[in-house]
């Protein structure tokens, strides 16, 4: 009888150990599903340069944040991305899924050229820096667009012919351009950029490509 009791206790002990190991392994897998945050600007460049090679670029809003984790892990091997590039892309996609609040047109109009320089200076990011870090991947160094559907900023009758309040609102909340397979995400995919920094980028774009 004692032998049977001891044998049963051993079986229960092994089951407990197995359950504990399973729980720890599951936690580890969940941790792998949510890697450290990457660089948004680098992620946007990697996204535009790699995804368009094989298929039309998908909108970041096509999938939830957790679904993008699985997709990016899968495509990392197929696209030959490094671990850092994968984290950058994932951070860009998840930031692009951030819902932006609507913008008051009058308030946006009040933060145009006269306030842009001082506001950007206080934040530490100039319009040029914001454009080169968060916009150039899709809009190109020439402002003519580097992906299908991106507007040509040099077109005098194009997107930049609209008022500053409308343009700033589009940048803050995101916009779907006609003919573009991928909408521009809110704040260019970088939710950490302030309204003042985005406005500084708008003024830089207009001064560099349109005026």
Q: How does the major sheet shape up?
A: none
Percent of residues in helices comes to 55-70%
The fold-level CATH name of the largest domain is Cytochrome Bc1 Complex, Chain D, domain 2
Percent of residues in β-strands:
under 5%
How many β-strand stretches? 0
- Broad structural category: mainly alpha
Helix and strand element order:
HHHHHHHHH
| CATH architecture annotation name of the largest domain | Orthogonal Bundle
What integer is the average pLDDT? Answer: 74
The top-level CATH class of the largest domain is Mainly Alpha
Shape: elongated
Total domain count: 3
Quick structural overview:
Helix content is 61%, strand content 0%. It is built from nine helices and no strands.
Detailed description of the structure:
Mean pLDDT is 74; it is low at 26-32 and 105-123. It is built from nine helices and no strands. The longest helix has 32 residues, at 2-33. Helices cover 61% and strands 0% of the residues. It folds into three domains: 1-33; 40-96; 105-210, Cytochrome c-like domain (Cytochrome Bc1 Complex, Chain D, domain 2, Orthogonal Bundle), CATH 1.10.760.10.
Features:
single chain; 211 residues; mainly alpha; Cytochrome Bc1 Complex, Chain D, domain 2; 9 helices; 61% helix
